[in-house]
Amino acid sequence: MLQKYDPRNKNIKVWIDGTLYKREDAKISVFDSLSQGGDAVWEGLRVYGGRIFSLDEHLNRLMESAKSLAFGKIPSIAFVKDAIFTTLKANKMYDETHIRLTLTRGKKITSGMNPQLNQFGCTLIILAEWKPAIYSGKKLKLVTSNIRRNSPLCLDSKIHHNNLLNNILAKIEANHAKADDALMLDLNGFVAETNATNIFMTKNGTVFTPFADACLPGITRGLIIKICKENKIPIFEKNISVTEFYNADQVFTTGTMGELAQVIEIDKRQINNTGRLLNTINSYFRMLTETTGEKII
Questions:
Q1: pLDDT digit string, tens, across residues 56-102
Q2: Cα(first)–Cα(last) distance of the chain, in Å?
Q3: Are 181 and 197 within 8 A, CB to CB?
Q4: Cα 256–Cα 260–Cα 263 angle in degrees, nearest 5
C-alpha cells in the first residue's frame, strides 16, 4: 500500500505564503511552529473533473481547528480559496489531484514552546500533487494496534492537527505486522478508527460506525452517513468492539485520500463480505464526486 512517486510531480509549484516555489525550493523557516512542535492544522482535498470536492466543509474544519488552537491572524476562507485555485491553475491540475493544505501558527521570534513567540501570523502551505486515491478499489488487511486513539481527555481528535505521532506509532505496528493499516481503539477498548481513515461495518442489512468520540468526524464519514439516511439505508453510530467487526458482514474504511475501501481481514480473521451494501453506498458516493464540488475558477 506504499504510495509511489509520480514523475509528473517533478516540476510542481508549491504555494507558501503568497509565493509559488519550485518543488526543490519549497521550504519553511526552522522557526516555524510546524517544525518546532507540529503546531499546525491541515486538510486533504481531492479534485475531480475540474472541481474540488467538499471544499467548504474542509475549509470550515480548517478554520475551526485553527480557532481551537488559538491561532492569531488567521487568513479568511476567501483568501485560502483563491490561493488554492491559483496553485491548481499554475500546475494545470484539474483532475486526479490531491491537495495537502496546511496552516501553521507561523514563525517564532526565537525557538520555544510558548505561542506568544509567534508574532508574524500564520503560514499557509498548499501542496498539490498528481496522486490517485490510495485505497480506492483496494482490499485492506488491518491489525489492532496497542496504541490507543486520543480522547478529548488527552488531545481532542476533532482538532485536525499536524501532530500525528499517535497515528504514526500505530502505523509502525501495522507495518511490522505486514498489514495495510492499524485499527485503533479508544481508552475504553471500543474501535475508534484506523490510523488513517474512519471505519464502518454492516450487519444484517444495517450500517454501523463508531461514535466520533475518539476519532476524527471525517468529511467523507459524514457524507456516507448522509447518503445512507437519504436512501433509507439503516445506519447507527454506536460503541463497537473488535469482536463485532470480526463478525461483520462487510467492513469498509472512508476518507478523502482513501475514498471507500473494503476491509477483508482484521487480526487474521477473514471478514464474511456478504451483502451488497458497500457497492450500493459506493455507487452513491461516486455520483457525488462526479456531479458536485466547487469549480476551479
A1: 999 999 999 999 999 999 999 999 999 999 999 999 999 999 999 99
A2: 34
A3: yes
A4: 130
Q: What is the DSSP string of the chain?
A: ------GGGGG-EEEETTEEEEGGG----TTBHHHHH--EEEEEEEEETTEETTHHHHHHHHHHHHHHTT-SSPPPHHHHHHHHHHHHHHHT--SSEEEEEEEE--BBSSSSS-GGGB-S--EEEEEEEE---SSTT-EEEEEE-SSPPPPTTTS-TTS-BS--HHHHHHHHHHHHTT-SEEEEE-TTS-EEEESSSEEEEEETTEEEEE-TTSS---HHHHHHHHHHHHTT--EEEE---HHHHHT-SEEEEEETTTEEEEEEEETTEEP---SSHHHHHHHHHHHHHHH-SEEP-
On the CB side of 138, CA atoms within 13 Å amount to 20
Chain position carrying cell 487568513? 75
How would DSSP label each residue in 37-101?
H--EEEEEEEEETTEETTHHHHHHHHHHHHHHTT-SSPPPHHHHHHHHHHHHHHHT--SSEEEEE
Query: According to the model, what pLDDT value does residue 137 have?
Result: 74
Q: What is the model's pTM? A: 0.95
Closest residue by Cα to residue 90 from 43, 45, 126, 131? 126
Q: How does pLDDT run across 193-246, given as a tens digit for each residue? A: 999 999 999 999 999 999 999 999 999 999 999 999 999 999 999 999 999 999
| Cα torsion 265, 271, 273, 275: sign | negative
